[in-house]
Amino acid sequence: MAENKKILLYRIDEQAKNVIFVVTEDDPKLWGNISEDMQTILSFDEIFRDITEFRNGFLDYEQLTDELIGTINGRGAVFREILERFDDNRLNSFNFFTRYYSDTLRDIFLSARADIDKAGAFFNTRALKKSTEYVNEVFNNIREVMRDDWNFDFNSESDMKAFRLSFDKIIIRGNDRNDIYTVADTALVNFFYDFSFAIHSRKLYVCSCKYCGKVFLGKKNAVCCDGTECQATYQNELKNAKRRERDNGTYQKYLTKLSNYIGQQKPKLSARVNEDSEVLQRFDKERKAYTQILKDKIEEYQAENRLPDDEMEQFYIQLRKKFARFWNGLAVEWEKEHRGEL
Ligand SMILES: [Zn+2]
Questions:
Q1: Residue at 342 is within a domain
Q2: 27, 190, 200, 342: which could form a disulfide with 156 (CB 3.0–4.6 Å)?
Q3: Burial track 261-287 (b if 16+ CB lie within 10 A, e otherwise)
Q4: What is the pLDDT of residues 96-134, one digit of tens each?
Q5: How far does the centroid of ligand 1 lie from the alpha carbon of residue 229, in Å?
Q6: What is d(CA 310, CA 301) in angstroms, rounded to the nearest whole number?
Q7: What ipTM does this complex have?
Q8: Residue 250, Cα to own-chain centre: how many angstroms?
Q9: β-sheet bridge partners, residue 25
Q10: Are the CB atoms for 68 and 101 separated by under 8 Å?
Q11: Maximum pairwise Cα distance, the chain
């Protein structure tokens, strides 16, 4: 083979919550030159969304790819026509996985097609069968990986499995560098395992943004993604909730004041009045009624998003005065009724 096989390297940075990908060739001489501009850095969220999108649209992708595989040993014109559609699909996609799988498969398809063209008029059935078999095997592997939820168990909740997997690491060390990359297998199985586990060990969960509806990886029960607009709305809502809470406190202050005030009135009368159960019952009834009046007023304010103001202060003062009148009246009445008993 004149050209080296392309390989995908990845390095997961759990702290930064991103993954660094590098596409290079299977040639150690090239690895030392891997520079920053050869890296594609994707955040955990971006990868997660791309995986989800790719898996959700996999039936369409599979259809197109199967069509292309079906024409590998057919007429050249048909193969090229479908290859064009396959290429368009890759070019129009911003999805990392669509692009990666398409590039990988394209190389394999073209090399199989070249083999078949070489066999040409001789129609070497054995060579033909071998080529298409390999193509099918590679795509079947991708198909299986995509369909198996176990590979995408981001929260490590599924049943335990143990198996052996071989893959290479590439270490670029020296000149203040110590980069350790993993060489991804063609179907990206090892990448999905590593990625899922990174999500798990960072204690991230699959959440859904209540503003834009997008899924994202966040703390357990998180409701807002990292999107600028969503964050702005979310922060605003948080602020409003805090203000509501504070305002609530401001309203509650009046209820506390009233309760304290009423409580202080009782001892102002003689112990004998306070021992009269009828008096106590009336006191309690009035206390409840006044509290309810104040509560209703507060609810009115809250419904109108109105902060306590002078009117509220006056309302409270009037309420207090009314209660005082009731209580004093009760005392006078009691004294009258019990005159002579003292
Ligand atoms: Zn959002």
A1: no
A2: 200
A3: ebeebeeebeeebeebeebeebbeebb
A4: 999 999 999 999 999 888 887 877 656 667 777 777 888
A5: 7
A6: 12
A7: 0.98
A8: 35
A9: 6
A10: no
A11: 134
